[in-house]
Amino acid sequence: MYIQRGGVKLSVRVKSGRETVIAVLGPGDFLGEGCLAGERRRIRTATAITPSTIVVVPKHRMTRLLGRPGIAQRLLSHALVRHAVMEQDLIDQLFSSTEKRLARTLLLLARYDTREGPRTVIRHVSNATLADMVGATPARISTLMNMFQRAGFIEYNRKLVVHRSLLNVLLHD
């Protein structure tokens, strides 16, 4: 599947019933690519978090499309970037403070690495979803969001605006 417009969260649920968000995807991202690697059982749940347009490409057609170098390169690039992000997420969970994990998550949602300019408006993500992504409680996320807003790193009203200055949280110990 390919996201043309909107946002989708990927989550996993363990046997105890606990669910956690492992990624929030947006326009230009792929999902469901595990079937191309022989994954028979779905382990992730995809949920639209904003009105979205998703292009569903049947496996047999996608296999043919992968014969085109441009498409193959784009899917491979997407998979490698997603792998690197998940690896960094694991490292963050083990070694970073909640404040730094939230700052990194907001910057990733804002796609700060692919956009120019001092600020980016990001799609709505609830404190509960951010808490799942960061590994914290919604109350802690609310406290940190208010702190980031007071510091001028974000604007947090009806929409969420992330300023590039939020990078300072990651760069300082």
Structure, explained:
The chain has 173 residues and is of the alpha+beta class. It folds into two domains: 2-95, Jelly Rolls; 98-171, Orthogonal Bundle (Arc Repressor Mutant, subunit A). The chain is built from six helices and eight strands, in the order βββββαααβααββα. The termini are far apart. The model has no long low-confidence stretch (mean pLDDT 84).
Features:
three-stranded antiparallel β-sheet; globular; 173 residues; Arc Repressor Mutant, subunit A; Jelly Rolls; 42% helix
Short description:
With 173 residues, this protein is an alpha+beta fold.
Task: Count all strands and give the number.
Answer: 8
| Whole-number mean pLDDT | 84
CATH superfamily of the largest domain: Jelly Rolls
What is the fold named in CATH at topology level of the largest domain?
Jelly Rolls
Q: What are the segments in which pLDDT stays under 50 over at least 5 consecutive residues?
A: none
N- to C-terminal separation?
A: 40 Å
Cα Rg: 17 Å
Instruction: Tell me the number of helical segments per DSSP (H or I, 4 or more residues long).
Output: 6
